[in-house]
Amino acid sequence: MQLKGINHLALATGNMDGTIVFWRDLVGLRLIAGLGKPGYRQYFFELGPMNMLLFFEWEGVEPLPEKDHGVPVHGPFAFDHLALEVESKDDLWTMYDRLCASDFWVSEVLDHGFILSIYSFDPNNIPIEFSWSNPEVDLRNNPRMLDQNPCAQALLGPDPVKEQLTPVTRPTPDKEKIVYPGEGSQFINKKNKW
Predict the structure, then answer these.
(1) Residue 124: which domain range?
(2) Is residue 93 part of a domain?
(3) Looking at the domain assignment, is residue 191 inside a domain?
(4) Residue 139, C-beta contacts closer than 8 angstroms, at least 6 positions apart
(5) What pLDDT, in 10s, does the model give residues 115-160?
(6) Which of 24, 172, 180, 189 is surrounded by the most beta carbons within 10 Å?
(7) What are phi and psi of 176, to 5 degrees?
């Protein structure tokens, strides 16, 4: 099995119009699909050749309380920030200028060694980082572990350790591979509003 990337990241909003203006118009992601019925919307933005951002719109959803990127918290917590990569250093400055011109808070440009980054928030207070990768420090082709006290699993290296997995003793037979219709199956035959 080989993963190809993130198909989509699902987020929520109470304001789809503001979300569209930010992600489609300001950030520049194509709005490629939408589903909806009373009290519910589901819109997809193209993030890359295989990746999408999805926003659910549900009545009563409010923007997140503002939380700065990477600042530790206590209690239940699962999501810190969304980091998106831009093609060039000039693209990073273009995004900086767009955010400033649209009156969104944006940090100064920070040099993290392997990336240059700016930080902001979308209209839902989702923390966002826009980054440009330094080609001189390619962590994908040259992984580095600099933690002074890495956890035990990290010490086993960057590649999957298949010996740790429970072996599959009964693969699902073809006759049991049943697929049920889910939300979005209407993309196949439904009339397009565009």
Answers:
(1) 79-156
(2) yes
(3) no
(4) 114
(5) 999 999 999 999 999 999 999 998 888 888 888 888 888 888 898 8
(6) 24
(7) -100, 0
